[in-house]
Write a structure and sequence with these properties.
Layout (H helix, E strand, L loop, with lengths): L1 H9 L4 E4 L6 H7 L5 E4 L3 H15 L3 E5 L3 H5 L1 H9 L4 E7 L15 H5 L5 E4 L6 H13 L5 E7 H4 L22 H12 L4 E5 L1 H5 L3 H11 L3 E3 L25 H9 L2 E5 L5 H4 L2 H5 L3 E6 L13 E4 L2 H14 L8 H12 L13 H11 L5 E4 L3 H9 L8 E3 L9 H11 L5 E6 H6 L3 H7 L5 E6 L4 H4 L22 H7 L4 E4 L5 H15 L3 E6 L29
Parallel strand pairs: 1-2, 1-3, 3-4, 4-6, 5-6, 7-8, 7-9, 9-10, 10-11, 12-13, 12-14, 14-15, 15-17, 16-17
Helix pairs in contact: 1-7, 3-5, 3-19, 9-15, 11-15, 12-16, 17-18, 17-24
InterPro entries: DHS-like_NAD/FAD-binding_dom (IPR029035), THDP-binding (IPR029061), Thiamin_PyroP_enz_cen_dom (IPR012000), Thiamin_PyroP_enz_TPP-bd_dom (IPR012001), TPP_enz (IPR045229), TPP_enzyme_TPP-bd (IPR011766)
EC number: 4.1.1.47
Keywords: Lyase, Thiamine pyrophosphate
Length: 564
């Protein structure tokens, strides 16, 4: 286990999250004299989400540790979340002795088989001599190709064993950075050069690849507008003149949908064409041509077949596209199409300046945008508040907007924000949550208070299961948390007080800004999480809007040539 800990340190791990138990104590003993800080969480799922947040904001491999049995099964949701969003993470579980595994020993479960569908690799250490090599391979697999999670299961008798290990002779295994095929790069440049209304679509892969600079260089070199997916928010600054918004059926802007509908060639980089982005495929594809760039070959053609596929790491591929265009003397596109996108942006806006009581959700995000700076890191999970966030919240830098995009586990944002703050203690961190999601893993607030991990929680509270309630299920259901001993739902202010953390409830739109300022000051003063609970109208519906084909053009689309 000393060798395993040395490998983790050399791979850049300085913080791990977990809960000790009898079957994992040898690993914990080995960490005692290391430089790795351990955050003891209250639930293993919370530990996985904290490691997930730490990984998303650092770009390195997050680590979560637990004992045998239910510790591993509690990690499954976090493993699935990391796999769905391509997040490199390693979960380490303890296990009963090898000789006892077939005898139904206490807390002995075949976690490797359970975890296989939600990991890139799940492995049980069979011999002590494998330890440094299995851990090295785990870090390599987690970061190679399309990143994702790995599970390592450690029988306790193997943990107690000895192996030969010299850290002076060891180093991380190389991570392949695949280069694109030059002929395909040339073909992509030809398609973009011949387009009338080209768009670049930046997915989460651009952020994972740290390719935001290369993306911006290509867009500016060709004067091509850039859209982002939900996972790609931050890959391109939203105040850039070439920003073209976000298309989709939920997390989108009206003007982003319209710009997409008017495009004729789309260069998608590191995007998986998720169904909440595409909606109906026949409308999404239309008559436009697609160039799909992805590091994972099997992603190309999985949802629909593009006109051109390019396998490659986003960073060298974007650089190669820029270099090829310059070497061929491809002229930047004219200003007509970018001006059209700018016109859409200024015309097809949603209101966010409401003064209504109860508070309308768009006003909440207007206040967030105006109060917090560009370097603030936001963490949000799933539901109506994620949809509103995607529609209204502004993002300017990569790894500053973290969202569990595909799996969407409620409760993700509190532990994930904790992981972000552990990675960057000096950075301002804000978790935007709903009332239901807050209650899923609110025990992790105790952890943040215990370890003095300060961040602000902005709760958008409509007091009932808003997204599902608006789906109009064909049977009656008690959606609200109406308590028998009082009026209304749970008193979150009192809950926070029980954890030793400040909280304030806001019911007037004019009080939001002052509450955010107060929360920032209290979090810094006390080094604990601080809650601002904003009561919004129950019936606000942002989820079930029209699909792409229902958006009507508000003025004729101009005829363009590539020279325009």
């Amino acid at each position: 286990m000393e060798a395993a800990v040395a490998v983790m340190e050399s791979e850049g791990v300085d913080t791990v999250f977990g809960i000790p138990g009898a079957a994992i104590l040898p690993l914990y003993a080995a960490m005692r004299d290391s430089g790795i800080k351990h955050i003891t969480v209250r639930h293993e799922e919370g530990g996985t989400h904290a490691a997930d947040g730490w990984s998303r904001v650092t770009g390195k491999v997050g680590v979560c540790i637990g004992t045998s049995g239910p510790a591993g099964t509690n990690m499954i949701t976090g493993l699935y979340t990391a796999l769905a969003d391509s997040i490199p993470m390693i979960c380490i579980t303890g296990q009963a002795e090898r000789a006892k595994l077939h005898q139904e020993a206490f807390q002995a479960v075949d976690i490797v088989e359970i975890a296989k569908p939600v990991t890139k690799w799940a492995v049980q250490l069979k011999e002590p001599g494998q330890a440094p090599w299995v851990f090295r391979e785990a870090f390599r697999i987690a970061q190679s190709g399309r990143p994702g999670p790995v599970l390592i299961d450690l029988p306790i008798d193997v943990q107690r064993g000895l192996c030969n290990y010299d850290p002076e002779l060891d180093a991380p295994l190389p991570i392949e950075v695949p280069e694109p095929h030059p002929a395909r790069v040339r073909a992509a440049v030809d398609l973009l050069a011949g387009a009338r209304r080209p768009l670049i679509l930046a997915g989460g892969g651009v952020i994972i690849a740290d390719a935001a600079d290369e993306l911006r260089e290509l867009a500016e070199a060709l004067n091509v507008p850039v859209q982002v997916t939900l996972m790609g928010k931050g890959a391109f600054p939203e105040n850039h003149e070439l920003f073209a918004g976000m298309a989709g059926i939920q997390t989108q802007q009206r003007w982003g949908n319209q710009a997409f509908l008017e495009s004729d060639v789309v260069l998608a980089v590191g995007a998986r064409f998720g169904d909440r982005h595409t909606g109906k495929l026949d409308t999404y594809q239309g008559d436009r041509k697609f160039i799909h760039v992805d590091i994972e070959p099997t992603q190309i053609g999985k949802v629909f077949e593009p006109e051109l596929g390019i396998v490659g790491h986003a960073r060298p591929t974007l650089s190669a596209l820029t270099s090829c265009a310059r070497s061929l003397g491809v002229a930047p596109h004219g200003e007509v199409w970018p001006s059209r996108v700018a016109s859409l942006r200024s015309t097809l806006l949603r209101r966010d300046d409401f003064d209504d009581v109860p508070i309308k959700p768009p006003r909440v995000y207007r206040e967030i945008n105006e109060h917090y700076g560009e370097d603030t890191t936001f963490v949000t999970a799933i539901g109506l508040y994620q949809i509103w966030s995607g529609q209204f919240q502004h993002t300017y830098l990569p790894r500053r907007y973290l969202v569990c995009g595909q799996a969407g586990p409620l409760g993700w944002e509190i532990p994930a924000a904790m992981g972000v703050k552990c990675a960057f203690p000096d950075r301002r961190v804000v978790a935007v949550a709903g009332d239901y999601s807050f209650q899923f893993l609110m025990e992790e607030i105790a952890v943040a208070a215990q370890y003095e991990i300060p961040f602000v929680i902005v709760m958008v509270n409509n007091e009932y299961l808003g997204l599902i309630r608006q789906a109009e299920l064909p049977y009656d259901m008690n959606y609200a948390v109406d308590l028998h001993y009082g009026e209304g739902g749970i008193d979150h202010v009192k809950l926070m007080d029980a954890f030793g953390c400040p909280a304030r409830r806001v019911e007037q739109p004019g009080d939001i800004r002052a509450a955010l300022e107060w929360a920032d000051a209290e979090a810094e003063r006390l080094s604990v999480p601080v809650l601002v609970e904003i009561m919004v109208e129950r019936e606000a519906n942002a989820a079930m809007g029209p699909s792409l084909d229902a958006i009507k053009e508000f003025e004729p689309v101009p005829e363009l040539t590539p020279a325009d």
